[in-house]
Amino acid sequence: MTDAIIIGAGHNGLVCAAYLARAGMDVLVLESGETAGGMSAPRTLGNDYNFPGLAHVTYPVSSAMRRDLKLDYYGYKPGPAIDTIALDAAGEHLTIGPGTATAANLSESDAKAYTAFRDQYLAFAKALRPLFDNKPPRLKDMPLGDLTTLAKLGWNIRMGMGRETMYEFLRVAAINIYDVLNDTFDDDRLKGAIALDAVMGSAMGPRTPGTVLTWLQRLYGELNGPLSLQSGGRSQLVNALTQSAEDAGATIRFDAHVDKILVDKGKAFGVNLSTGEMVKARLVISNADPRSTFTKLVGAPMLDAMFAHRVTQIRGSGVVGKLHLALSGLPEFTGLAETQLGNRLLVSPSMKYIERAFNHSKYGECSEKPVLEITIPSLHNSGLAPDGHHVMSINVAFVPYALEGGWNTQKQTFAYKVISQLGQYSPNLTSLVVDHEFLTPRDIEEQFHAIQGHWHHGELSIHQSFMMRPLHGAAQYDTPIERLFLCGAGCHPGGGLTGLPGRNAARRVLEMGGAKK
Amino acid sequence: MSTTEDWATWNTYKVPRVVDKLPTEYFAVRSGCSVMDLTPMEKYRVTGRDAFTYLDRLVTRDISKLEPGRVTYVVWCNDDGKVIDDGTLFQLSENDYRLCSQHHQLDWLLISAAGFDVTVEVETHDVAALAVQGPTSYSVLTAAGIDGLDDLKPFGIKNLECRGFPVMVSRTGYTGDLGYELWTDPSNALQLWDAIFAVQGQYDIHAMGLDVLEMVRIEAGFIMPGFDFNCAESTVRNGYDRSPYEVGLGWVVSLDKGHFTGQRALAEEKSRPPRRLLTKLVVEGNKPVGEAFIYAGKNGKLVGEIKCAIWSPILKANLALADIDCNNGHLPEKLWARFDYQRELKWRTDWAECHAQTKPFYSPEHKSATPPARF
């Protein structure tokens, strides 16, 4: 009998599979789609245009993981390191590199402040390493391992940082990034760019409490290396993970859609596929989002009533839309040289701009002036598009899952609106668009089986973080159903291409005895 | 009817504590026939294709043997296996049940309904309910015009008639005596009351209040969630709620049936020795021991406290229910109550030895006789 079934070959599922296979377990990954990688899997538009996936910019995975799973050996190479360019309507763009911010009209004090600010927050992120790297401590009946995590965390914060820095950390940890950035900087472009990183993927504006924490969560990745582009080629993470898992003995089956987790006497013992096939295993590990896992696959009747109810209260209405453009040539951006177009471009000119764009989504509307994160991956990998052609990958923030009036009639209009808005920065863009694909959170829900199409499988708000992620009772990867585990972004420490939930889940499985009877 | 004007509020209704005289009402239950309006009791109608599986997941008991025309006593717990409330479950027909409870439960019932094809509706104010209890209750109801009670067994339900209007009769009650609960449309309620009191000349029938109910339910050994212990989900302090095992309801827990809320927690609890027990005590002496601490021996270690206590006229004894800590899974051998009482406004303190028992204090044979004795 298979030791462990993993539902979903998204990157966390693959990481979990690779770790468990290496520990000697017989692992079967069941993937509903035709390829591995989930939201990080490369995709094609038409026949000729390729995109790196829903995720286009990422940080490298940790060196520990690269070592453990021999990812470099299997071809993994973090994509090209890129800078961030905050676009300005008047053409006075701001460039943010690792630790530096430069612009023709950026004040010296802001430039200095940026370096100091990043250093401080990187220090904060480093201090949080014990928390991100381990399962969140359980507060009730805390076992020794969790106590150690808390102790390390406490030490890092108190001793590692020094008292002054600790006070500053405690002051800002739970508050909003808008206030912090206003305290630190003057330049709107700079603040807009930093704030975007704090909110992209979340239903939060810069003024939402908890956005310092979400920014730290994102910044944490920088401890592994610089921000890089997913190149869409062989060296992409998903390929190396697949090979690493399979080489260690894991099997991945595609077109295998799980529609039920089988439970008997409080223990999971296998799954049913939509074809009717039953697959048994000693353990079931779900990389699907927690709400899908518990309400659809397990079903409320097999759970305790209050737990089932709290699952339905998990907040996670998707807010990012993905716009893919197939272009017949390289667009020109006013004020940018061609050599700069390979970077991450942001349309996020100020924090107020972001907040207003967020406002619309709260009421089920499309933003009047959308917030955008843009890359042109074909500049790094010409294989993504035909000769001379290009692909543009755009994250559109604050695209509501539930649009007033529904998406069917408004999707096309909104996509064109975004394109024409970008046209303000790139006058010839519109004329170059030969095809496009716009994925709303509804489309993402449908295609990736993530309820409400949320990137992180659930909001990264404080009340859904750490020992409350995805909810109390399932925050350490095991669940109230014996032999059923969670390993996806809906768990600690959340989304992003980190592989941490998958690895932590694998550790938890092994810590709890693996597949032994 | 009320001479005392001593009213309590039960679920937004005004209910008498004492209608006229406490001893009269007590002896109506124990030697005659008492009548009490149960309309304020929470009633929920549960219907739908998944009504059975929904209820079986809600309550701790295996209800697969329940069938139309039968009632059963049930308890339901939260995820942690702590008692939320208890009640009676009536199966009226296929996929059609009535769940009665003391406390408002709609929230919990609706939360529990997710994933089931079931409808839960509040019927509290749409069904008039009357408790008719006492050794002559069978004779009274028959004389009042309700035919067909002679073969109604305990926990059975029958759809009968009274003077031309339909009345559902269940042989259930909270008094531990022979008795029935009558269910009818509110428009028939007054007629039903009048039909019963029309035969008051032949039988000693009295309306009774909550104070007597408290006495007789303790005599019968029935617990009252919210009074003898805190109901889970509304308990604030950690550890102040109770599992069914801790309140003597282990017999209502079927661990080996399909999944029910709290099962995992209860299985874990069962694997360990019990830590405390709500225990029936007969307390020596005749001083009132309502509020008292329990010790393992006179001047011994504090082990518990009395939750409710009464002087039982029919047994001529002090009866109490007490929450007592176990020692290695067992109740202490010696149990003493230390209590304070007043004599002409002066406080005194005293000790009384207590004797624990598991059987109901008062359980007369006539309560289950079918047919019951005629008077």
Give the radius of gyration of chain A: 22 Å
Overall, the morphology of chain A is: globular
Cα-to-Cα separation, first versus last residue of chain B: 26 Å
What's the gyration radius of chain B in Å?
A: 21 Å
Q: Give the overall pLDDT of chain B as a whole number.
A: 96
What is the percent of helical residues of chain A?
25-40%
The averaged pLDDT of chain A comes out at 93
Which class best fits the helix and strand makeup of chain B? alpha+beta
What is the CATH superfamily classification of the largest domain in chain B?
Probable tRNA modification gtpase trme, domain 1
Describe, in plain words, how this protein is organized in 3D.
In chain A, helix 8 (188-199) runs parallel beside helix 13 (351-362). Chain A contains 17 helices and 19 strands. Chain A is an alpha/beta fold and 517 residues long. The model of chain A has no long low-confidence stretch (mean pLDDT 93). Chain A is 34% helix and 17% strand. Chain B has 375 residues and is an alpha+beta fold. The mean pLDDT of chain B is 96. The A-B interface holds A 263, 266, 295, 299-309, 312, 473, 480 and B 53-54, 57-58, 78-79, 108, 111-112, 114-116, 233, 259, 261-264.
Topology:
The complex is a heterodimer of chains A (517) and B (375).
Chain A: E1 2-7, H1 11-22, E2 27-30, E3 43-45, E4 49-51, E5 57-58, H2 63-68, E6 84-86, E7 94-97, E8 100-102, H3 108-127, H4 129-133, H5 144-160, H6 163-172, H7 177-184, H8 188-199, H9 211-219, E9 228-229, H10 237-247, E10 251-253, E11 258-264, E12 267-273, E13 278-286, H11 290-298, H12 305-312, E14 320-327, E15 344-347, H13 351-362, E16 372-375, E17 390-397, H14 411-422, H15 429-432, E18 433-439, H16 441-448, E19 484-486, H17 500-511
Parallel strand pairs in A: 1-2, 1-13, 2-10, 6-15, 13-19
Antiparallel strand pairs in A: 3-4, 5-9, 6-7, 7-8, 11-12, 12-13, 14-17, 14-18, 15-16, 16-17
Chain B: E1 6-10, E2 13-18, H1 22-31, E3 33-37, E4 42-47, H2 51-58, E5 70-77, E6 83-93, E7 96-101, H3 106-111, E8 119-122, E9 128-133, H4 137-144, E10 157-162, E11 165-170, E12 179-184, H5 189-197, E13 205-207, H6 210-220, H7 263-270, E14 276-283, E15 292-296, E16 301-312, E17 317-325, E18 335-343, E19 346-357
Parallel strand pairs in B: 3-13
Antiparallel strand pairs in B: 1-2, 3-9, 4-7, 4-8, 5-6, 6-7, 9-12, 10-11, 11-12, 14-17, 14-19, 15-16, 15-18, 16-17, 18-19
Helix pairs in contact in B: 1-6
